[in-house]
């Protein structure tokens, strides 16, 4: 792991806090799902935290983020209120979408978080459109579009890359390659194999692959990509190699993965490795870690309490916010 | 009052819309080619490539980028060359455009206008009428102008919408002429138009089928019967009230739809009519639709597929003995 000399102690603490917040928030979600308080699809980001935490803080407040259905991590790092996110997962009126969206459809436009999208690849044309609006309005805004390895096989992926490259739009295509689309390994789904960043090459979009378990590596690559896009050079493509530690969704026992593979990746746990390295470098102490962990515990307890105590949406509101 | 074609009326509406800086037009061959149906002829020279944007043949990203740009504060007008190609963009239209405002609890609005061309005489893959499908999707609005007046009036309304609008223009109607006043007016969504008044039977139609209905009305007039012809003008919102009011007067009704009958829009209308006006009906609600086959190439076969005045007359005779 490369240590960026630019990180000071408080930044290290903040990055650790964000990764741990996602991890613990989702551990709690998993429990709430078993209790039936969260329903529908629930896709956990556990194991992939370094990607969101590496990438998103490199953005400016006015930048746009577009995510997929595995969106809790992106949302929390971007500063969505854990209370509102938890309430949304519980389908409550106080949720980010008043209980109309759910886990896969988190939105907070005031934070530049333009949504979680649950049709594989479907968010990509929309992200391209957001980038187009920024370009037409001559705004200083970068759009970052997250998607999984499965999306690379969709037509919308290719249509989006082509148009963004053709029109030199200010967008970072951010691929989270966790090697699987549900139960299918990328080796079996993509003709080029697992180096999916090569899929950007036909469109002559500058592309790179980065270790998605290494927070600092992601951060460095993302900062460079975002800067490049911001300076008007057109789209950039980044592929973060990562791994989800859990099943695809709560419905998936994950039987298709070898235990040895899972163990191997567990050793690269982005939170453990970051913590160890930062401790070695004297940038994070046991006490600080304990303090942050306690604080996160409180944030999550508070979020759950808030969700529990929040009312369900009014039945009368079912026709609100749609032309019906 | 000046006369113009539907094509000219749409062009006029688009030119007006472009006076708003947020409006831009994108689509396949809308620029130097001038649009597959010549609606945007001369626009590129007039407005420049920043406003009139040729896209690759990539319907999904065209509609999706329209949705995204609308979310980002623009007012895109996307031209999809024909409604057949809309099928490649259904994900963006149905899964995304129609749902953004709801899923985000009103945080996001999608004021995108999608113009496309329905109907035609170009064989199985190029002569379909899907506007009724889109009308079944909550969150969308669907305009179906059959006159130059309505085309201009509905475009003006569409541009002001905060929700995604699909304007289905009929391939065979671009050359149709009609009067369009110089003074500003708009045609609101959800207001059907009575094209001809009558007391003996109601005929409900949209787009090209309005002309079929008018011909039927002529033929009925020869028999001394007066048909009331209703042009829906928009399918969503749907002006059921005007239809019901007419049915209560005439006690007889036939719905004419160019699309397939099975699961089609005509069935929806028939159902609404019998639910609301059952006691006023002298017989079953009639329905004359395109035959349930792909559009054939042969002119003779094709003519047998699309509803004709003869077929409507036959149905009227069977159901009501008129
Ligand atoms: C168009 C579409 N097809 C299928 C699905 C069902 N589905 C949901 S997630 C998923 C796998 C996607 O994998 P990937 O893009 O790699 O993302 P990951 O879940 O690994 O983060 C599939 C097939 C869907 N939601 N959308
Ligand atoms: Mg994957």
Give a quick set of tags describing it.
heterodimer; A: 324 residues; alpha/beta; Rossmann fold; six-stranded parallel β-sheet; 11 helices; 8 strands; 42% helix; globular; B: 322 residues; 2 domains; seven-stranded mixed β-sheet; five-stranded mixed β-sheet; 14 strands; binds thiamine diphosphate; binds magnesium ion
Written overview of the protein:
The complex is a heterodimer of chains A (324) and B (322). Helix content of chain A is 42%, strand content 12%. Chain A is of the alpha/beta class. Chain A has a single domain (9-297), classed as Rossmann fold (3-Layer(aba) Sandwich), CATH 3.40.50. Chain A is globular, with a radius of gyration of 19 Å. The mean pLDDT of chain A is 96. Chain B is of the alpha/beta class and 322 residues long. Chain B folds into 2 domains: 3-179, Rossmann fold; 193-320, Rossmann fold (3-Layer(aba) Sandwich), CATH 3.40.50.920. Helices cover 36% and strands 20% of the residues of chain B. Chain B contains 12 helices and 14 strands. Chain B has helices at residues 6-17, 43-47, 59-71, 90-97, 100-103, 131-134, 148-160, 208-222, 240-250, 265-277, 299-305, 309-320; strands at 3-5, 23-27, 52-54, 75-80, 113-118, 141-143, 165-170, 177-179, 193-196, 201-205, 227-231, 234-236, 253-260, 286-290. In chain B, the strands form 3 sheets. Chain B has a 7-stranded mixed beta sheet, sandwiched between helices. A 5-stranded mixed beta sheet of chain B has the order 9-11-10-13-14, sandwiched between helices. A two-stranded antiparallel ribbon of chain B has the order 1-8. In chain B, helix 1 packs parallel to helix 7 (148-160), helix 8 crosses helix 12 (309-320) and helix 9 packs across helix 10. The longest helix of chain B has 15 residues, at 208-222. Chain B is globular, with a radius of gyration of 20 Å. The A-B interface holds A 64, 96-98, 100-101, 105, 107-110, 114-115, 117, 119, 122, 124-134, 136-137, 155-156, 159-160, 162-163, 166, 320-324 and B 24, 50, 55-56, 58, 60-61, 63-74, 76, 88, 91-92, 95-96, 99-108, 138-141, 163, 237. The structure holds thiamine diphosphate and magnesium ion (MG). Magnesium ion binds next to strand 5 of chain A. Thiamine diphosphate (TPP) binds next to strand 5 of chain A.
């Amino acid at each position: 792991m490369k240590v960026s000399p630019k990180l000071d102690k408080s930044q290290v603490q903040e990055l650790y806090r964000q990764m741990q917040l996602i991890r613990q928030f989702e551990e709690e979600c998993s429990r709430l799902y078993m209790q039936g308080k969260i329903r529908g699809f629930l896709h956990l980001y556990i194991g992939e935290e370094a990607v969101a935490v590496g990438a998103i803080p490199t953005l400016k407040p006015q930048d746009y983020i577009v995510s997929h259905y595995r969106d809790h991590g992106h949302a929390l790092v971007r500063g969505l209120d854990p209370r509102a996110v938890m309430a949304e997962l519980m389908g409550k009126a106080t949720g980010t979408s008043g209980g109309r969206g759910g886990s896969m459809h988190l939105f907070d436009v005031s934070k530049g978080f333009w949504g979680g999208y649950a049709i594989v690849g479907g968010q990509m044309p929309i992200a391209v459109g957001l980038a187009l609006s920024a370009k037409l309005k001559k705004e200083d805004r970068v759009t970052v579009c997250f998607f999984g390895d499965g999306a690379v096989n969709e037509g919308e992926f290719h249509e989006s890359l082509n148009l963004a490259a053709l029109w030199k739009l200010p967008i970072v295509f951010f691929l989270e390659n966790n090697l699987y689309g549900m139960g299918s390994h990328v080796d079996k789904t993509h003709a080029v194999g697992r180096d999916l960043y090569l899929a950007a090459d036909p469109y002559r979009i500058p592309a790179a692959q980065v270790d998605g378990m290494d927070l600092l590596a992601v951060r460095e690559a993302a900062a460079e990509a975002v800067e490049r896009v911001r300076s008007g050079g057109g789209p950039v493509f980044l592929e973060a190699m990562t791994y989800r530690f859990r099943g695809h969704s709560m419905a998936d026992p994950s039987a298709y993965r070898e235990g040895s593979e899972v163990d191997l990746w567990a050793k690269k746990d982005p939170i453990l490795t970051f913590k160890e390295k930062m401790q070695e470098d004297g940038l994070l102490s046991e006490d600080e870690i304990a303090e942050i962990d306690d604080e996160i515990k409180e944030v999550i307890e508070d979020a759950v309490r808030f969700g529990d105590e929040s009312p369900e949406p009014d039945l009368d509101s079912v026709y609100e916010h749609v032309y019906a | 009052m000046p006369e113009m074609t539907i094509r000219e009326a749409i062009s006029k509406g688009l030119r007006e819309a472009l006076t708003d800086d947020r409006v831009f037009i994108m689509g396949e061959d809308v620029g130097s080619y001038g649009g597959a149906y010549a609606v945007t002829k001369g626009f590129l020279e007039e407005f420049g490539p920043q406003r009139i944007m040729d896209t690759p043949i990539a319907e999904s990203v065209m509609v999706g980028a329209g949705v995204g740009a609308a979310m980002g504060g623009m007012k895109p007008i996307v031209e999809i060359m024909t409604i057949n190609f809309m099928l490649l963009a259904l994900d963006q239209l149905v899964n995304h455009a129609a749902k953004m405002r709801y899923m985000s609890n009103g945080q996001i609005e999608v004021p995108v206008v999608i113009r496309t061309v329905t109907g035609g005489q170009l064989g199985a893959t190029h002569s379909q009428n899907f506007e009724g499908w889109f009308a079944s999707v909550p969150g969308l609005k669907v305009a179906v102008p059959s006159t130059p007046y309505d085309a201009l009036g509905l475009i003006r309304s569409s541009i002001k919408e905060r929700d995604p609008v699909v304007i289905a223009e009929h391939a065979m109607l671009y050359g149709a002429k009609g009067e369009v006043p110089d003074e500003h007016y708009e045609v609101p969504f959800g207001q059907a138009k009575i094209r001809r008044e009558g007391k003996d039977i109601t005929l409900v139609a949209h787009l090209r089928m309005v002309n079929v209905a008018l011909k039927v009305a002529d033929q009925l007039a020869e028999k001394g019967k007066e048909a009331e012809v209703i042009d829906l003008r928009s399918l969503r919102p749907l002006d059921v009230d005007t239809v019901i009011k007419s049915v209560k007067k005439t006690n007889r009704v036939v719905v004419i739809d160019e699309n397939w009958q099975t699961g089609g829009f005509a069935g929806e209308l028939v159902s609404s009519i019998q639910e609301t006006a059952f006691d006023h009906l002298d017989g079953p609600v009639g329905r004359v639709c395109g035959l349930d086959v792909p559009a054939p190439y042969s002119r003779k076969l094709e003519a047998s597929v699309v509803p004709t005045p003869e077929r409507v007359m036959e149905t009227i005779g069977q159901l009501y003995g008129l």
